[in-house]
Amino acid sequence: MPELPEIETVKLQLQKVLVGQKLLSVSDEKYKSLKYKSVKEIRREGKVFLINFGPNLDLGFHFKMTGQLVYGGLPTKHTRAIFEFTKGTLYFNDMRKFGWVKINPEFTKTLGEDALDISTHKFLKLLKELRKPIKIAIMDQKIIAGVGNIYANDALWESAVNPRTPVNQLSINQLTNLLKKIKLVLREGIKYGGTSLSDYVDAFGKNGSYQDHIRVYKKHGEKCKRCKSIIKRIVLGGRGTYYCPKCQI
DNA sequence: TGGAATGTTCGGCT
DNA sequence: AAGCCGAACATTCC
């Protein structure tokens, strides 16, 4: 469950059911130090999901491409870790095995400020000297944390900026507006419970519905919702990139 | 069959 | 230094 809105959706759901519960059993020895401890807090840092069991004791999950964190039900063919709490069981499923589950992951220390929280001032300061394409910059987790391919494509379409434009060629106004649009599409993603195009399901195994509101991601060959030109696909930084060649200059 | 897939990291080249 | 590219991770789907 890849990007910020999907992790945030799971976070909001599990906050309601997991806080206060005691961890009774774990599927792997490496998590045994958490046994019989209670969940103090659930939080999200960028695309990382964290369960806190006390001072400096977090269980962190990264879903990478196909991870799922499902509360209740039964294990599946792709279940990689199981955490049994007093009132229910949490399954970490990951078909492609790129994801990870770690105690106190160091990875979170490398993350930039959260995409939903970063100020315009800080965003401009971090970006304005860069010469790399704007899409690469906003997906760089060390710069801002949480934006992945779907929402990066859609935010760039919303702000009418070409994904390939070098950051230092964008005006202050364009960058300011882009940050607004990044936050807008992320909030919309959360509102719709995330994007379920392939593997993502929420903490109760249900699909999100942002896929019904996507602007350009994977829409190549279709008409732009703004100007009716045909959406184009290119590859940028090794990732599929979708944009309107007419209104995203 | 080949290519692509919501993420991240690493090595190598310019 | 900064940026770019391809490969790697493992698996499925079209």
Overview of this protein structure:
With 249 residues, the chain is an alpha+beta fold. The protein folds into two domains: 4-110, MutM-like, N-terminal (N-terminal domain of MutM-like DNA repair proteins, Alpha-Beta Barrel); 113-243, Helicase, Ruva Protein, domain 3 (Orthogonal Bundle), CATH 1.10.8. It is 23% helix and 22% strand. β2 and β3 form a beta hairpin. It binds a DNA duplex (14 and 14 nucleotides) through residues 1-3, 6, 47, 62-67, 78, 94-99, 107, 130-132, 136, 139, 141, 148-151, 194-195, 197-200, 217, 237-240.
Strand count: 12
Tally of contiguous helical segments: 5
How helix-rich are the residues, as a percent range?
A: 10-25%
- Overall structural domain count: 2
Topology:
Elements: H1 4-18, E1 23-26, E2 41-45, E3 48-52, E4 58-62, E5 67-71, E6 79-85, E7 89-94, E8 100-103, E9 113-114, H2 120-127, H3 134-138, E10 144-145, H4 149-158, H5 172-191, E11 232-236, E12 239-243
Parallel strand pairs: 9-10
Antiparallel strand pairs: 1-6, 2-3, 3-4, 4-8, 5-7, 6-7, 11-12
The structure holds a DNA duplex (14 and 14 nucleotides).
Quick summary:
With 249 residues, this protein is of the alpha+beta class. It folds into two domains: 4-110, MutM-like, N-terminal (N-terminal domain of MutM-like DNA repair proteins); 113-243, Helicase, Ruva Protein, domain 3 (Orthogonal Bundle). The chain is built from five helices and twelve strands.
